[in-house]
Amino acid sequence: MVTIGTHSGSFQADEAMGVWMLRQLPEYASATLVRSRDPKVLETLTIVIDVGGTFDHTKLRYDHHQRGFFETFDGAAGVATGPENATGKYKTKLSATGLVYKHYGRELLCALHPELKASVDKLEWVYDKLYNDLIEGVDAIDNGVEISDEPRYKEGSGISSRVGRLNARWNAPEGGPTEDERFETASALCGAEVAAVLDYIVSCELPARVVVEEALLAREAVDGSGEVMVLNNGGCPWKTHLYELERTHGLTTLVKFVLYTDQSGMWRVQAVTQEGTAFTNRLGLLEAWRGVRDAELTAIAGIDGCKFVHVSGFIGGNATKEGALAMALKTISA
Predict the structure, then answer these.
(1) 82: pLDDT strictly greater than 80
(2) For 115, which DSSP code?
(3) Which whole-number Å values give the CA distances from 185 to 23, 25, 250, in the listed order?
(4) Quick one: how far is CA 109 from the chain centroid?
């Protein structure tokens, strides 16, 4: 009988998500779940995560609590002793979820989205993207890594917080769900989160990446400066793709503005932010235009069809593509 083991007692998102991931794989789809801390019980199980004090891929044992463990998503096994010595891009120590995903993630992705089997490049991009967008956060929280040195606010809607609230409360009345039933609810919640984020990446982000790359490579046909990019397919997700693709293609001249249409058909001219920042633009629209609208803005800018410029200068609008492009180029040349 095939079995999946994890610890009993209070549960966290990392093992709840890890168990769900394993259950999506053919070899563990009908596995029995055993929740225990008894070493003798754990010894008999097929695969064990988040308990047992051992990480050994050859023995299907995936704990991360033992002294001396520091495995990262893309680092060489057993090399790093802390984030400062991690050998790859990622510096976060893996939790049970990260360990399962690192070793079975590609198989998981192909099980959930078989179309990924057709392209190694797309599979690898999605594999990294899902870790970056969802799983690293679970690893970090479970290992007690703060999101920043000086948090400015609390954020309690994340998957780790939601799973935590599914544990039995200290004053819960008798007769409610058992601990194992609560764990199954938590695991299903984690699974829904993984599936939703993955579907967004595969169905929305991946096609957008193709569109952005085509637009990036065609930018000099828009303007010889190479600093304006036009998305003719509407406002698809573009920021992360743009940063990555600029590096991939070794560009020295970076894009300052991206043009696209919104749902109303208005052409938007949006400033590209500096990578790693939310609000610092590589170049904002002209100061004199900010907070001004319609006819007044058209007169000040000397460009037909102007609709608005945000007070911070990060975005503006024009009735036409030509007008939006003129707003970008006038800003660049100022």
Answers:
(1) no
(2) G
(3) 14, 19, 47
(4) 15
